[in-house]
Amino acid sequence: MFNFVNRNPFGQKIESAVSTGQENEQRRQQQKDEDETNYLEEDDGDEVSISPQGTLSEDDIKYLVNEYISRLKSEHEGEDKIIQKLDKFLSKFDVKKFMKNNPNMTYSDFNMIMFNETADIVK
Question: Which residues contact 65 (CB under 8 A, 6 or more apart)?
């Protein structure tokens, strides 16, 4: 109710009980924030650095394409039309052309590209 600082005639500050409670709450919040910051700074030792991924070789791509198509077939097991289209895609797949169109491909790149290549087939 009285959220202001009163001055008495002797020049000393008189603070209301409400403002003291707010200051205590602010101090608790600041302490909590400092504790969280300290915890996060100490927690940096648990970080794991991820090394850059290498590019895929021709054999890697052949293997991954077969695995990817097999996984799609198992997901669409009862749908013969989609399985036929996936078989056709696999039979026409040219690794050299694929690598030429997508140079320096990593595993993550491969998954994105294969998703885009097969998205129309599995719709």
Answer: 90, 93, 95, 98, 114
- CA-CA distance, 102 to 94, in Å (whole number)? 12
Alpha-carbon distance 87 to 93, whole Å? 10
Tokens, residue 39: 């915890």
What single DSSP character describes residue 121? T
What is the rounded distance in angstroms from the CA atom of residue 19 to the CA atom of residue 24?
Answer: 9
Question: For position 36, what pLDDT does the model report?
Answer: 80
Instruction: Classify the C-alpha dihedral 92-93-99-101 as positive or negative.
Output: positive
Model pLDDT for residues 74-97, shown as the tens digit of each residue: 999 999 999 999 999 999 999 999
